[in-house]
Amino acid sequence: MVRILAVVLVLAISGCAVFDGGMVPKTNLIPYDENGYKKPNLSYSSTAIGGVFSQSELPGAAQSIMEGELFSVLESSNYFSRIAKKDDSADINIDVTIINKGNPAALIPAAITGATFYIIPSWATDQFNVVAKVERKDGLKKEYTLSDTATIVQWLPMMFVFPVKNFSVIPEVRKNMYKKVLADMKADGFFNASVETLSLAN
User: Fold this and answer.
1) What's the CA gap between 154 and 124, in Å, rounded?
2) Could you tell me which of 181, 155, 16 has the C-alpha nearest to residue 95?
3) Superkingdom, according to UniProt (predicted)?
């Protein structure tokens, strides 16, 4: 019995592969070009909403994970002199809501896949929607809305794909969406002002 459970566990882990939807193009952030401008400081807030049958705010642990993903992108961008949570004195404020929608219809096929030891394939797609509201202290503001997906395929041959297309794809989809928001902010001129200029706006 223990051996059977072990086999099922191995199949459940390695008999899956995760593929991104590709709805948001892969985004590599262009290094910050100061061009006489100092980097602004940033205030951020994050809310994660999800669920299979209905959507509601996710528990604290999940909120922390998704907020950590956002913070890691903001920090690694090297676009900001300082990043703080809910700081009214910041040059730029960004309020991010991410919504994860699952498909309840995928539960039955997944159960069939498990019952047949991953011989019969199934797949489930999670949709991610990001709404980022950005405002600069001089009044420049914009709202960015992005959507992408991650699809988990459960099938025995996926064990050969799993090492590359594993569950790390899911957070990378979300992080790529945050990178796209920053790239769009840069294109829309949110960084084309010095800290001194922003300070004069108050």
Assistant:
1) 9
2) 181
3) Bacteria
Per the structure block, which two tokens stand in for 40? 């602004």
Q: Compare 171 and 164 and report the one with higher pLDDT.
A: 171
Three-state DSSP at 172 gives helix
Burial of 165 (0-12, 13-18, 19+ CB in 10 A): middle
Query: What pLDDT does residue 196 have?
Result: 54
For 180, the enclosing helix (H) or strand (E) is helix 169-187
Q: Using one digit for the tens of pLDDT, what is the confidence trace for 87-112?
A: 889 999 999 999 999 887 788 888 88
- What six digits make up the tokens of 174? 């979300």
Q: What is the mean pLDDT of the chain?
A: 86
In b/e form, how buried is each residue of 35-56, taking b as 16+ CB within 10 angstroms? Answer: eebebbbbbbebebbbeeeeee
pLDDT over 70 percentage in the chain: 87
Report the DSSP beta bridge partners of residue 151: 19, 125
Whether the CA torsion 196, 197, 198, 202 is positive or negative: it is: positive
